[in-house]
Write a structure and sequence with these properties.
Structural class: alpha/beta
Radius of gyration: 20 Å
Oligomer: single chain
Strand order of the largest sheet: 3-2-1-4-5
Number of strands: 10
Order of helices and strands: EEEHHEHEHEEEHHHHEHEHH
Shape: globular
Distance between the termini: 32 Å
Helix content: 40-55%
Bound molecules: adenosine-5'-triphosphate, fe (iii) ion
Largest sheet: 5 strands, mixed
């Protein structure tokens, strides 16, 4: 099976081709990503209208490049998969319209994919892990622990009750005048800093569940920053690095402890040796990955995380999630709609804090 995937739910326009031969591991034949960071940099965040226009302009070029890099044409595809939500609605609509155009003109089956399912299934694409597994999905808009039993079978064990960690990294960067996206720049600063100089809160650790909260970190950061500015008139390079290090240590500690608890909750449902996987943009953070590895080793769990470029937004994960849905017999019609919100765990629609 060969699937073309499209992704345009946030600020990356992407197309990819993924192939899986009978009985073989899936392969990424091409993965094209056009980032929009420069378009939004003057605004300190993603501007939905600018994003939607840029997606509409770039999608067909992405598709052309993805097919060319794979050395294939639309005739070689078995289906076209597209992110149908959740995300910025204008961008999601651009992708869905483009995929419908391809499906209508070629007769290829159309498969709508949940962006979060794309992130959550990526460790199967990259590391070949089997169901069931415990997924920590940590991204720009989401943070949740999921029990993954199949391509459409997700149970949420817990997650953030307010901000996502990616959002917290981005806000931290903004407050300290560092470039966006904040994750990589805060990580780079943190590597030069002393994590002990500033003590950030570790919220919700007094509760036994695996829910998290990140909104208090930015308030703490703002207070610390303002105090240094009031005392010394400005921030030095070292102040900035120490603030980043303190902030990142709080995120790392919280995720580590909540992962311990999530493993316990997971084992209550799925006894045996657990596999734990992390995905989403924040899973690209090396300190977070290292902490999760340690926690899993202590708990006797296997840990995997996709390579960095497949952690952040891409279309290979959408093509692959589409491939799994296609194999399960799923097909969408030309009436497929773009959804701004689309919780993975459909059984509990009253999800709190699932981000967007
Ligand atoms: P979602 O998938 O929830 O809709 P999104 O698609 O915007 O949100 P991703 O592309 O998965 O999110 O991840 C982007 C986020 O990951 C950004 O907030 C970015 O700052 C963060 N990020 C990227 N690299 C790192 C890193 N090394 N450390 C921490 N955060 C990172
Ligand atoms: Fe994403």
């Amino acid at each position: 099976l060969t699937i073309l995937g499209l992704e345009s739910s946030c600020d990356d326009t992407a197309a990819a081709v993924v192939r899986q031969a009978e009985g073989a591991r899936p392969e990424v034949l091409s993965s094209i990503v056009f980032g929009q960071t420069e378009l939004h940099s003057a605004f300190g965040g993603v501007v939905p209208e600018i994003a939607a226009r840029a997606h509409a302009e770039k999608l067909d070029i992405c598709v052309r490049d993805a097919l060319a890099e794979a050395g294939l044409t639309l005739k070689d595809m078995n289906a076209v998969a597209v992110t149908a939500g959740p995300g910025l609605i204008g961008g999601v609509m651009s992708g869905v319209m483009c995929a419908k155009g391809i499906a209508a003109s070629t007769g290829l089956p159309l498969i709508g994919v949940n962006h979060l399912a794309g992130h959550a299934l990526t460790p199967r694409l990259t590391n070949g892990i089997a169901y069931p597994y415990l997924m920590l999905l940590v991204s720009g808009g989401h943070c949740q622990y999921l029990l993954v039993r199949g391509p459409e079978d997700f149970s949420r064990l817990g997650g953030t009750i307010d901000d996502a960690p990616g959002e917290a990294f981005d806000k931290t960067a903004r407050l300290l005048g560092l470039p966006q996206p904040g994750g990589p720049s805060v990580q780079a600063e943190a590597e030069q800093g002393d994590p002990k100089r500033f003590r950030f809160p570790r919220p919700l650790l007094d509760r036994p569940d695996c829910n998290l909260s990140f909104s208090g970190l930015k308030t703490a950061l703002m207070r610390m920053r303002d105090q240094i500015v009031a005392e010394k008139g400005g921030l030095t390079r070292q102040d900035r690095a120490d603030l980043c290090a303190g902030f990142q240590a709080a995120v790392v500690d919280t995720l580590a402890e909540k992962t311990r608890r999530a493993i316990r909750l997971y084992l209550a449902e799925q006894p045996g040796q657990p596999t734990v996987a992390a995905a989403g943009g924040v899973a690209a953070n090396t300190a977070i990955r290292a902490a999760l590895e340690t926690v899993c080793a202590e708990a006797g769990a296997a840990f995997t995380a996709p390579p960095l470029r497949l952690c952040t937004d891409n279309a290979a994960m959408i093509a692959y999630a589409g491939l799994e849905r296609f194999k399960a017999g799923a097909r969408d019609g030309l009436d497929l709609t773009a959804r701004p919100r689309w919780p993975l765990d459909q059984s509990s629609p009253a999800l709190i804090g699932s981000g967007r």
